[in-house]
């Protein structure tokens, strides 16, 4: 450990460090903190929804407020919790896995985070400024245009800003993986998580612009009097649905593919076996991503697109089951014949298999257009996508946090609490959502503020709500675990799990800010494992020790995002009073000014001299 | 651990099975007891896909349990290094090909029925009803017969009825789970679906597309009567005299109040193409008031006095003069005696 | 890599824009960015195609479009793409002043294009009362073409900033990638315009 790193620093200095950081590992921390905050917020919203539905005709919250809750729960969980936490994990781990010292665009990386954060804050400001958006997270145009107040305007502005940040993150990861792999790290030697990051980034790149356009159209209609969705002037609201799902369906694969990669790494590590069918796994991921763009209209089977469209999209949807099935069986085959260690990280991965399989099953069932006429927009759908997003994404996030906590924070999470979190969450999750399949088929549509008495829906809803309390308890235990670990957690070696890939081959835990003093030489899949099997125990350097070039930190990303944040308010309120144009133009000018400063000030980065590296190695 | 996991799974399956057996939900609401053509077709596919998928699930779970039983790290063998298997082409081919076959098994009927359910080529030979979705009520225009009604849709048993649906404000979705799957009611274009009910009865209908605060209260009913009763009902509805004086004095006062307060500005009694608010021609026969309230006079008075507290965001609130409870009571008296037909929901067995 | 990034003909690498890791990153990053932009414009084109006949009794495309001006605009933009190729050619030959000259011409052509577009929009509004709010067609037209115009404007600001910033510095391995990425972006804008010309104006006039 270096002397400087152990020195106590003032709170202000730490804060300034994080505001200006462009180190991918610290940006990962920021993403995890930001995403974690919104995850708790979204979770509270979920609990409020479930309390409202604990009994028939409940009046715990009002109808309008309930719609705000469901809208914000969905929007928050997807855009502000799951995605940022995934981007955080990718940021923390992917550069290490490919043996890079940093990402391609450290500045953009930081900008992406701050845009997400300010976008999320802008969206949530709506709670205090006359009400949150209330047209559902899908915000279908006819209702979104009809919605009074500024709620939906906040949705538009907040997501536009946060979405731009995500797009930057995606481009950054793509360029990083193409250009910055360590010597010997060919594409087909990359760990599955790095592959998944790559493919997910492609999805982000091609999916988010559709959302951007859609949000612009809605913004123009609501704030500037255009007529895209105004039927009287020839507009068409189905355009919103198409563009939304052209974005929205790839989005669900953006949420799950990184975790497919992560689970592959985890199963392999804790079974002490290389991944079964590596090539098939890579191509299955690609195929899922490709098909993910071809199935958007299965969210629109009841819109009346006609039997030809419905049939094509139904078949394409069912076809996704094939590569997904390949993955599940390859994971089982990876464990087959292995020597399986079960700790809290592995528990989440093991819990994922049955849970996600159920989600995948119901996915295929939903893909059958004719059956979907009954499932569509009911609790069956709610159950399905929670099985996928909670059983896949959230389980995966917990798995990743337990697995990589040592790499990210230099501590190891408490095992006992980890297992308690898993079991309560696992039981609560199945309690909450399994029953909802039946509620849907028994006639309960989704987004219902109340369900009526004597319709046979009481018991199922009660069970579901109790399950939600179990999940809340699990999250509380996890939060306690974080604080406990920060205070008293065990300090692990850089390789506590007998790892196989390069994130476990760093000099310390957490890794130094330049990651590798000398870039490692990769000689095959699972590079660290190869060196261990050949008795070297550590990576062979691919270069002599020399000066390391690193980029400089900057406050500009924070300031630019702040500018867009202010401009967001300007956009929202200029319809009420033209004085708000001041905020609009002022914020934009400020952000663009920061861009000009960035362009005009040369930033060549700095060098860490060889001597310092040698000193730190001792 | 694995014992635990198994137990929990078994418990979950058992409890859901118990729930399933204790009833598939309310008889005239659930999609699991199909009572019409559309719901039957959908139900058959639900069963087919469920069976196929359960087969896959079992394959996964059995392998999974074996893996967890056999390949845990064993005491005394902590340093055991398993064979590093790269893959197995035969196995991988098997678990690629079998799912493809399963997908085909499910895809073929899906495609066939996608076409049968959306085939409207014979619409002209059957009953056609125009449906309009409004925040938060349903308008039914029997355009061939030349009259309208709201909230309660009467159809004859065993006959195809084509519904031409459009929304007046925001997107809604028309769903009567027992009789048919749903179809969106768009603002942009007219969607046509057909329904055919096998049994007489009163069925619950729901709006299935978020349409505002009272989305969950936008219920309606489909009343399936025998073809003879249906013809009778049509004749009675065509025969309505909107100007008919009520028999009781209170109701007569109510009628005057109804006219004085310009309730007809929105609510038609008798045929009227205008449809700002629900048509009240056969209001006295409604299964429910406002879609979900028991049809009692108290509920109706409450509704007339303060609809906002009952159906938040409705379009009636604030669009008529304040009424005293006494006035509301008289109007209620008038409305509840609007019973133009012998054929009522009770003819179909009443709402359960 | 030394701190002195200036070049002379002896140390000049084959591709100065891709000689450094930063350069490679910029090159790759911009290509990916353009991929995203392609989807953005595809969505706008899709929306336009869906709404191009929804005129709500307002002016229709064949009444208002005049191909003459649009042809001039097309020529301006196509030529500017060519001049930016010349600029890149001179960059690779390490001829800084000629590169600046050709980029200047590119910018001028871009300004000319934008002026025509502003004139065109003003013409529609004043002559036909055809605005952003007239009909769904109006909204879709101004949004699609306006997004493209906005991209041209952004490109102009970009190249002018580059020229001002590097006016006295000459070419080096730090700024070569920046000029190159601008040129790539400019080609992309040009390609989008070709689609707009075909889908909006030709199909609007003839189809």
TrEMBL record, chain A:
UniProt entry keywords in alphabetical sequence: Electron transport, Heme, Iron, Membrane, Metal-binding, Respiratory chain, Transmembrane, Transmembrane helix, Transport
InterPro entries reported for this sequence: Cyt_c_oxase-like_su1_dom, Cyt_c_oxase-like_su1_sf, Cyt_C_Oxase_1, Cyt_c_Oxase_su1_BS
Transmembrane segments: 30-51, 71-93, 105-129, 154-180, 192-219, 239-263, 275-296, 308-333, 345-367, 379-405, 417-439, 459-484, 555-573, 579-600
Keyword Membrane: yes
Main location: membrane
Residues of the Cytochrome oxidase subunit I profile domain: 10-523
Compartments where found: Membrane
Family matches, as Pfam families: COX1 (PF00115)
Recorded topology in the membrane: Multi-pass membrane protein
PANTHER family, A to Z: CYTOCHROME C OXIDASE SUBUNIT 1
Family according to the record: Belongs to the heme-copper respiratory oxidase family.
Name assigned to this protein: Cytochrome c oxidase subunit 1
Organism encoding this protein: Virgibacillus alimentarius
UniProtKB/TrEMBL annotation, chain B:
Record's signal peptide: none
EC number(s) recorded for this UniProt protein: 7.1.1.9
Catalytic EC class: translocase
Domain Cytochrome oxidase subunit II transmembrane region profile, chain residue ranges per copy: 23-121
Pfam families (alphabetical): COX2 (PF00116), COX2_TM (PF02790), Cytochrom_C (PF00034)
Domain Cytochrome c intervals: 249-339
Entries under InterPro entries matching the protein: CcO_II, CcO_II-like_C, Copper_CuA, Cupredoxin, CuRO_CcO_Caa3_II, Cyt_c-like_dom, Cyt_c-like_dom_sf, Cyt_c_oxidase_su2
Positions of transmembrane segments: 41-69, 90-112
Location of the protein in the cell: Cell membrane; Membrane
Chief subcellular location: membrane
Entry keyword set: Copper, Electron transport, Heme, Iron, Membrane, Metal-binding, Respiratory chain, Translocase, Transmembrane, Transmembrane helix, Transport
PROSITE patterns for this protein: COX2 (PS00078), COX2_CUA (PS50857), COX2_TM (PS50999), CYTC (PS51007), PROKAR_LIPOPROTEIN (PS51257)
SUPFAM superfamilies: Cupredoxins, Cytochrome c, Cytochrome c oxidase subunit II-like, transmembrane region
Co-factor binding comment: Binds a copper A center.
Every Cytochrome oxidase subunit II copper A binding domain range: 124-236
Cofactor(s) required for function per UniProt: Cu cation
Membrane association type: Multi-pass membrane protein
Source taxon at top rank: Bacteria
NCBIfam families, per the entry: CoxB (TIGR02866)
Biological role: Subunits I and II form the functional core of the enzyme complex. Electrons originating in cytochrome c are transferred via heme a and Cu(A) to the binuclear center formed by heme a3 and Cu(B).
Protein name, as recorded: Cytochrome c oxidase subunit 2
Species of the source: Virgibacillus alimentarius
TrEMBL record, chain C:
Transmembrane segments: 30-51, 63-87, 99-119, 140-164, 184-204
Alphabetical list of PROSITE patterns matching this protein: COX3
Membrane-protein topology: Multi-pass membrane protein
Cellular location(s): Cell membrane
Any Pfam family hit: COX3
Alphabetized SUPFAM superfamilies for the sequence: Cytochrome c oxidase subunit III-like
Primary localization: membrane
The keyword Cell membrane is assigned to this record: yes
InterPro entries: Cyt_c/ubiquinol_Oxase_su3 (IPR024791), Cyt_c_oxidase-like_su3 (IPR000298), Cyt_c_oxidase_su3-like_sf (IPR035973), Cyt_c_oxidase_su3_a-hlx (IPR013833), Ubiquinol_oxase_su3_dom (IPR033946)
Family: Belongs to the cytochrome c oxidase subunit 3 family.
Record's protein name: Cytochrome c oxidase subunit 3
Protein source organism: Virgibacillus alimentarius
């Amino acid at each position: 450990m270096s002397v400087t790193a152990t020195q106590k620093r003032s709170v202000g200095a730490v804060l300034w460090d994080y505001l200006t950081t462009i180190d991918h590992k610290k940006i990962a921390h920021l993403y995890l903190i930001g995403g974690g905050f919104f995850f708790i917020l979204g979770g509270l919203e979920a609990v409020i929804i479930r309390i409202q539905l604990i009994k028939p005709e409940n009046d715990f919250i009002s109808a309008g407020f309930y719609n705000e809750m469901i809208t914000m729960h969905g929007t928050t969980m997807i855009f502000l919790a799951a995605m940022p936490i995934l981007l955080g994990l990718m940021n923390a781990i992917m550069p290490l896995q490919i043996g890079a010292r940093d990402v391609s665009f450290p500045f953009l990386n930081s900008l992406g985070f701050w845009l997400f954060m300010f976008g999320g804050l802008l969206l949530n400001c709506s709670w205090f400024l006359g009400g949150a958006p209330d047209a559902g997270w899908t915000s279908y145009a006819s209702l979104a245009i009809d919605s009074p107040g500024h709620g939906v305007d906040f949705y538009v502005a907040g997501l536009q800003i946060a979405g731009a940040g995500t797009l930057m993150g995606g481009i950054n990861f793509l360029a990083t993986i193409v250009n910055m792999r360590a010597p010997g790290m060919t594409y087909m030697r990359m760990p599955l998580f790095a592959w998944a990051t790559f493919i997910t980034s492609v999805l982000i790149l091609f999916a988010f612009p559709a959302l951007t356009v859609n949000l612009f159209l809605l913004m123009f209609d609501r704030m500037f009097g255009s007529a895209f969705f105004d039927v009287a002037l020839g507009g068409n609201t189905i355009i919103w649905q198409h563009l939304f799902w052209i974005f929205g369906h790839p989005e669900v694969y953006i949420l799950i593919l990184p975790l497919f990669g992560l689970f592959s790494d985890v199963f392999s590590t804790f079974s002490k076996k290389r991944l079964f069918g590596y090539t098939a796994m890579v191509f299955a991921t690609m195929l899922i991503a490709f098909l993910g763009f071809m199935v958007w209209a299965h969210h629109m089977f009841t819109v009346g697109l006609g039997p030809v469209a419905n049939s094509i999209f139904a078949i394409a949807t069912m076809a996704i089951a094939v590569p997904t099935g390949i993955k599940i069986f390859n994971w089982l085959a990876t464990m087959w014949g292995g020597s399986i260690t079960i700790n809290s990280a592995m528990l989440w991965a093991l819990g994922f298999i049955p849970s996600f399989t159920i989600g995948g099953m119901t996915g295929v069932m939903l893909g059958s257009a004719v059956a979907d006429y009954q499932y569509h927009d009911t609790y069956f759908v709610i159950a399905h996508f929670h099985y996928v997003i909670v059983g896949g994404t959230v389980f995966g996030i917990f798995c990743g946090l337990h697995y990589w906590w040592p790499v990210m924070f230099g501590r190891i999470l408490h095992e006992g609490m980890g297992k308690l979190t898993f079991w309560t969450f696992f039981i609560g999750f199945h309690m909450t959502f399994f029953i909802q399949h039946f509620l849907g088929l028994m006639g309960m549509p989704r987004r219902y503020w109340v369900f009526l008495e004597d319709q046979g829906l009481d018991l199922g809803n009660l069970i579901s709500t109790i399950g939600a309390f179990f999940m809340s308890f699990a999250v509380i235990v996890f939060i306690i675990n974080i604080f406990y670990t920060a205070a008293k957690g065990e300090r692990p070696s850089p390789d506590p799990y007998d790892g196989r890939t390069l994130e476990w081959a760093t000099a310390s835990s957490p890794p130094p800010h330049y990651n590798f003093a000398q870039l490692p030489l990769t000689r095959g899949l699972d590079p660290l494992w190869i060196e261990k099997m050949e008795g070297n125990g550590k990576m062979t350097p691919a270069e002599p020790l020399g000066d390391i070039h690193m980029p400089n930190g900057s406050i500009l990303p924070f300031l630019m995002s702040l500018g867009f944040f202010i401009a967001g308010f300007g956009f929202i309120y200029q319809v009420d009073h033209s004085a708000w144009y001041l905020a609009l133009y002022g914020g934009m000018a400020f952000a663009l000014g920061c861009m000009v400063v960035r362009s005009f000030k040369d930033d060549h980065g700095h060098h860490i001299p060889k001597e310092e590296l040698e000193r730190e190695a001792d | 651990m694995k014992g635990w996991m198994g137990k929990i799974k078994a418990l979950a399956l058992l409890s859901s099975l118990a729930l399933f057996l204790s009833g598939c939900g309310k008889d005239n609401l659930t999609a699991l007891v199909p009572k019409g053509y559309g719901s039957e077709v959908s139900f058959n596919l639900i069963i087919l896909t469920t069976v196929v998928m359960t087969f896959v699930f079992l394959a996964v779970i059995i392998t999974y349990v074996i893996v967890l039983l056999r390949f845990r790290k064993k005491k005394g063998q902590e340093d055991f290094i398993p064979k590093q298997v790269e893959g197995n082409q035969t196995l991988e081919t098997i678990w690629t090909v079998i799912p493809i076959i399963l997908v085909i098994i499910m895809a073929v009927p899906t495609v066939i029925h996608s076409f049968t359910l959306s085939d409207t080529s014979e619409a002209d030979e059957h009953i056609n009803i125009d449906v309009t979705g409004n925040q938060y009520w349903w308008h039914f225009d029997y355009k061939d017969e030349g009259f309208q009604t709201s909230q309660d849709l009467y159809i004859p048993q065993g006959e195809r009825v084509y519904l031409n649906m459009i929304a007046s404000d925001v997107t809604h979705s028309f769903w009567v789970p027992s009789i048919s799957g749903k179809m969106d009611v768009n603002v942009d274009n007219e969607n046509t679906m057909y329904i055919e009910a096998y049994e007489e009865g009163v069925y619950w209908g729901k709006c299935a597309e978020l349409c505002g605060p009272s989305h969950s209260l936008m219920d309606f009913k489909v009343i399936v009567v025998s073809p003879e009763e249906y013809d009778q009902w049509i004749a009675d509805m065509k025969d309505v005299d909107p100007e008919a004086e009520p028999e009781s004095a209170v109701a007569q006062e109510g009628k005057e109040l109804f006219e004085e307060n310009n309730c007809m500005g929105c609510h038609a009694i008798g045929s009227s193409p205008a449809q700002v608010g629900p048509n009240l021609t056969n209001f006295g026969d409604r299964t429910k008031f406002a879609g979900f309230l028991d049809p009692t006079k108290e509920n109706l008075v409450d509704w007339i006095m303060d609809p906002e507290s009952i159906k938040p965001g409705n379009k009636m609130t604030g669009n008529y003069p304040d009424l005293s409870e006494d006035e509301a009571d008289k109007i209620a008296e008038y409305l509840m005696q609007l019973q133009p037909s012998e054929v009522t929901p009770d003819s179909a067995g009443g709402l359960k | 890599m030394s701190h002195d990034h200036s070049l002379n003909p002896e140390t000049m690498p084959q591709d100065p824009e891709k000689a450094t890791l930063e350069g490679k990153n910029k090159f790759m990053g911009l290509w990916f960015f353009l991929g995203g932009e392609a989807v953005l414009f595809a969505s706008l084109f899709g929306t336009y195609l869906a709404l191009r006949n929804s005129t709500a009794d307002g002016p229709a495309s064949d009444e208002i479009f005049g191909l003459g001006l649009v042809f001039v605009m097309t020529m301006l933009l196509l030529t500017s793409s060519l001049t930016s190729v010349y600029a890149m050619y001179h960059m690779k030959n390490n001829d800084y002043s000629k590169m600046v000259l050709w980029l200047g011409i590119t910018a001028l052509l871009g300004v000319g294009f934008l002026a025509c577009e502003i004139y065109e929009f003003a013409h529609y509004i004043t002559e036909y009362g055809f605005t952003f709010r007239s009909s769904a067609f109006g909204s879709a037209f101004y949004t699609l073409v306006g997004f493209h115009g906005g991209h041209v404007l952004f490109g102009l600001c970009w190249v002018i900033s580059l020229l001002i910033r590097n006016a006295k510095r000459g070419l080096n391995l730090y700024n070569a990638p920046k000029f190159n990425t601008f040129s790539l972006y400019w080609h992309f804008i040009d390609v989008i315009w070709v689609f707009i010309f075909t889908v909006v104006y030709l199909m609007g006039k003839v189809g």
